[in-house]
Design a protein that fits this description.
By secondary structure, this protein is α/β, with parallel strands linked by helices. It has one domain: 3-Layer(aba) Sandwich (Rossmann fold). It is elongated, with a radius of gyration of 20 Å. The two termini are 12 Å apart. Keywords: Metal-binding, NAD, Transferase, Zinc. This is Sirtuin family. Pfam families: SIR2.
Length: 305
């Protein structure tokens, strides 16, 4: 497990942030239904740079222009080599390891009635101790692929695994050298071009079974609390969650480096996630080992290891 920083190395947290963390810890110990939704900000400490810094960013525009199924179909070779291998499936992503924030979330999910929905395709949550039944990678996962032929089994139901893209290398390039160029991988079933198992900007959450959208909707519907971590609230799943939370009066927490005024109705925890989540873990353990909490909530008590 990643090392947790000692108290002396953590960023000081203000009173409001500490109060919000304490409130969430009590709700978790009480066994309320909590859905965590994580975004790109969580993986920055793992060395993965988010492409969406601000709304008018050139980098963001490049990704949104290329990151569509329509653009892929126009020229699969250019799409793979000019876009995907330069922005996502590259050493920065493939060599990344879970950071302290990922491991803290895995520990927190040992509490009852907790679920995790991640927007990140970097596979880092799946490399921690998060139970598979508690995790949905709603935007897909690196290393898995899908077919573009509508009636193919790999188009909407199943995923393809390619352990090593170097097998498709052209011009003697390699992934390790950072200049990999590939011949377009083809579907083993129908021989059409395949694309990464990611939710692209012109695709729906219901477009493939891997995204598990019905489960996400069920989790959101039955949750008492939403906890957003490192997200910019600029994709469908976060917008849906916020709208549902506001409509039904759910408690919502935002763990981020800043408090977005557009989401002033959320309870903000402004700090690096490694610090705020470490404190949340400590609060949970403290509450769980308090005899009064054990006596009052005997069937919901779950000791975090």
């Amino acid at each position: 497990m990643a090392d947790v920083k000692p108290d002396s190395d953590r960023v000081p947290l203000d009173a409001e942030t500490r109060a919000n963390i304490s409130e969430l810890a009590q709700m978790l110990v009480d066994g309320q239904n909590v859905v965590f939704i994580t975004g790109a900000g969580l993986s920055v400490a793992s060395g993965i740079t988010p492409y969406r810094y601000r709304q008018d960013a050139i980098w963001s525009n490049f990704v949104t222009e290329w990151g569509t199924r329509k653009r892929f179909k126009e020229d699969p070779f250019a799409w793979w080599n000019e876009f995907w291998l330069r922005t996502h499936e590259k050493p920065e992503f493939l060599n990344a390891k879970p950071n302290a924030g990922h491991h803290m979330i895995a520990r927190i999910l040992q509490c009852t009635n907790t679920k995790l929905v991640t927007q990140n395709i970097d596979r880092l949550h799946s490399q921690t101790s998060v139970p598979v039944q508690k995790l949905v990678e709603v935007h897909g996962r690196l290393g898995k692929y899908k077919c573009i032929t509508p009636n193919c089994e790999f188009s909407t139901k199943s995923s393809l695994d390619i352990p090593d893209l170097d097998a498709f290398s052209c011009d003697g390039s390699t992934m390790a050298s950072g200049n990999l160029r590939v011949h377009v991988p083809l579907c083993p079933s129908c021989h059409a071009p395949i694309m990464p198992q990611s939710l692209f900007f012109d695709e729906k959450y219901t477009s493939h079974a891997f995204f598990n959208w019905p489960r996400v909707v069920k989790w959101l519907t039955h949750a008492d609390i939403f906890v957003f971590i490192g997200t910019s609230f600029s994709v469908g799943v976060t917008q849906e969650a916020v709208a549902m939370g506001r409509r039904t009066g759910k408690r919502m927490f935002n763990f981020n480096l800043y408090a977005d005024p557009e989401y002033s109705d959320l309870l903000h925890v402004v700090a690096p996630s490694s610090d705020s989540l470490a404190l949340l873990c400590e609060k949970i353990i403290s509450l769980q080992t308090d005899d009064r909490n054990v006596l009052e909530k005997p069937r919901l008590w779950y000791r975090m290891g």
